[in-house]
Design goal:
By secondary structure, the protein is mainly beta. Helix content is about 5%, strand content about 40%. It contains 1 helix and 10 strands.
């Protein structure tokens, strides 16, 4: 048995729709914890003073080196901002949804999806930017290499 799934993902890449063909291999009903990629999220907390504060998304790129400050940006950024608090909590804001996470030095920890997204801070033209791995469905269920959300510091 096969399933044909039309994918219309032109939010960031501008690609034309395509068809994924999936073959049924089991009748078992799986839970989310049984499928996909899961990272080790049992990490000790290590403070990173440099990450504390609110970060606003400004772009999304395939690789960190692809980011150019003044180039036209993609139009749809699902993740609007991330706030890293001193108590290890982090809050991701989407349009009308807040997502509560944790962090430790170098990674944002998503306990619901059991992923750790590495972040990298860079100073470009005297502005602080954070590059955060985007580990959602393409990574978890498709095994794709994570892309990056790019954030600009709002406050410190």
């Amino acid at each position: 048995m096969y399933m044909f799934l039309e994918v219309n993902d032109n939010s960031s890449s501008g690609d034309k729709p395509y068809i994924n063909i999936l073959k049924k291999i089991s009748n078992k009903k799986y839970s989310l914890s049984e499928i996909g990629i899961h990272d080790n999220i049992d990490l000790p907390f290590v403070m990173d003073e440099n990450i504390i504060g609110l970060w606003k998304s400004v772009d999304a790129v395939q690789n960190i080196k692809d980011f150019i400050v003044n180039k036209p940006k993609i139009t749809t950024l699902w993740l609007k901002s991330v706030c890293f608090n001193e108590d290890r909590t982090a809050v991701r804001a989407y349009d009308n949804i807040k997502w509560y996470d944790f962090w430790t030095k170098g990674v944002l920890i998503d306990k619901v999806r059991a992923t750790t997204s590495a972040y990298d801070l860079k100073l470009i033209n005297n502005k602080e930017y954070m590059f955060l791995e985007w580990k959602m469905g393409n990574y978890i269920y498709g095994g794709a290499k994570p892309e990056y959300y790019v954030f600009e510091r709002c406050n410190k």
